[in-house]
Amino acid sequence: MARGTTRPAVTPSEPVVGPWALPTGWEWRRLGELGQFINGAAFKPTDWSDSGRPIIRIQNLNDPLKKMNRTLRIVDDRYIVEAGDLLVSWSATLDVFTWHGESAWLNQHIFKVIPDESVVDRRFLYYLLIHEIEALKKSEHLHGSTMMHINRGPFLAHAVPLPPPDVQQQLVARIEDLMNELDDAGEALERTNHDFGIWRKALLRAAMTGELTASWRSANPTREPDSDPIRSIAIERRGRWAANPRRSGKQYREPRGANRAGLKDLPPGWVWTTVEQLAFVENGQTPKGIDSVVSEAGEIPWFKVSSMNIIGNDEFLNESRWRISADDARKIGLHVHERGTIVFPKRGGSIFTEKKRRLGCDAAFDLNVMGVTPLASTARYLWTFFQNLSLASISDGSNVPQINYDDVAQLTLGLPPPAERDRICDLIEDLISCANEVEQEVSVFLSYAVALRQSILATAFRGDLVQ
Questions:
Q1: Which residue spans within 336-386 are E strands per DSSP?
Q2: How many angstroms separate the CA atoms of 394 and 351, rounded?
């Protein structure tokens, strides 16, 4: 029998009654009446080889780049899959695919679908299968607690709507137009999400070099700029250092300034500076003996990277499941950091979560966390800077990425006069708030994309997509 005109898997019997009324000319048919559904052969690992014809397994449908097992074993030709064939995985992964690879054998738990093209258009059947498998996933015909599957009998007996051939072709054209529009919209939104990262970097650069507030400066001229604008900050920093009891008796080390080589000129009143000049940068600790004193009691929270990841998206960290008493912290030499300290992951894959928080109370954190404690006069400005800084961009790029002290301490940024600092923070907060709203809407749309595709198919198979 010629390919594409094979007999159906289910012989037509009594009329099928479907769940809703169909348009004139449509009829309910059993899925198995629309063609043949050939389950793949049972290839075992002992059949695998480095040569021979490849075997299509479910993993190769889920990931086309996955290496294919091959075999020298010969089975019936009906298990051969060619490019363009329709495949349905009915165990573990429940989905529909069009094969685009080389000629291959079909493994078990996958149907090769040979449409009866005297009854159904191949592309129409493809979309119909996608829709009906989603319906079956929600029905009593789905079985298994750990490996979901659909039994062959109920699957082939499932009632499906079938319009006349000319309407099938109209529906396919309309479905593909709408799907293409949805794909284009999704790709555009994905690009928007990607572009937001570039935009944030550009915004940060413009803010920290004075470009963002150029018009504001023109409208708000300042008096003669201070010849040494960070002098007062240096005094504040030294005073904060001396006031910390745990630094008593230690020698103060002056922070390193910015290396101005290659840096552009800044607006009047601005200077190049470093994070280290505007804050104290410190690594977290996991001192010996901490496991014996950390509990759910105690007045001082002790944060791990996991704490930062699980406590929502609040700006401030206040509560931790791990706590320690002030007395125990002193005994084991655990440093307690001030409220307002900016904290973020400094080692491993957690860096790429880009989580940055501020301590909402005096607290300690482990060695996988880094802290930046700003001066009072620079706290808001530095928080704005770190919120829009990519942690991944300052990590060392190793197999286990890490952010080292100098990677943070020597970050260079422009420092404007106090009034302009406040203006920059106001502008960035407003702009980022708007951007976050757009990003959230983009994410919502993308999360609903699958549902939108199903909605298109549901509308099509109820006869409402074409007249």
A1: 342-345, 357-359, 364-365, 369-374
A2: 10
Query: Which residues neighbour 404 within 8 Å (Cβ) at sequence distance 6 or greater?
Result: 346, 396
Residue-level pLDDT at 166? 95
Res 200 pLDDT > 90: no
What's 308-348 look like in SS3?
A: HHHCCCCCEECCCCCEECHHHHHHHCCCCECCCCEEEECEC
Total residues found in the chain within this entry = 467
pLDDT score, position 5: 46
For 12-44, write each residue's pLDDT tens digit.
556 788 888 999 999 999 999 999 999 999 999
> Burial, 371: exposed, middle or buried (Cβ in 10 Å; 0-12, 13-18, 19+)?
buried
Contact present, 34 and 8 (Cβ < 8 Å): yes
Q: Which residues pair with 94 in a beta bridge?
A: 90
Helices (H) and strands (E) in the chain, counts: 15, 23
**Which residue do the tokens 């015909």 mark?**
141
For 220-286, the DSSP string reads S--SSPPSSTTHHHHHHHHHHHHH-GGGTTPPP-PPP----TTPPPPPTT-EEEEHHHHEEEEE---
The first and second tokens of residue 219, run together, are 């409208």
Which pLDDT score is estimated for 208? 86
Lowest-confidence pick of 167-171, 251-255, 301-305, 366-370: 301-305
